[in-house]
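User: structure tokens for this one?
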Amino acid sequence: MTWTADNKFLEDDRFSVYGKLAPKSKADFAFVQHMIHHMTDDGVAVVLLPHGVLFRGAAEGAIREYIIDKQNYLDAVIGLPAKCFMGTSIPVACLVFKKNRGENKDNVCFIDASMYYEPGKNQNRLRDEDIDRIVNAYTERKNIEKFCHIASIQEIRDNGFNCNIPRYVNALEQEEEINVDAVKLQLEELYAKSSQIDKQLEGFFKQLKGN
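Assistant:
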């Protein structure tokens, strides 16, 4: 969504501490800032946003850095499957914010749940087992290969506060390594066999013409 991003909002308590406003063309962080402002001391806010908020720079990057490094409110980033919500087909990121993060204040939980769902014709659906998988990973906060990574705040700093999930969770299947020399040898053998077959066929054609 768009919004005015008028400089007068820099005097508003919801936005002033960040020193930056969400850009006019992308009001995502304005919503987040509003929610954070109204959280109680033990409050929790959960918001669904497009993945761009996780890695876009400029003002959004500055706001994201402040939330993580100064406020330390970002508790989890969960990537959900595409086509799970009415009105949009894009995959959505679920961000969990907590004011009191307790023993988890030194880390952020990254989960890539984009591959776990029941496909539908017009809309995909999270099954009970998919929800349980996400909730268990979030509450247990242990690294799970290709699904969950518990990133230290320092690791996020080292990544320039870029919270794009693939930076922390590699969910792609590793492709089998190709032995180029072996493939080249196979091609040479196939080419040699092909040449032999061509010669045999040429002999057959001559016989047919002779008949």
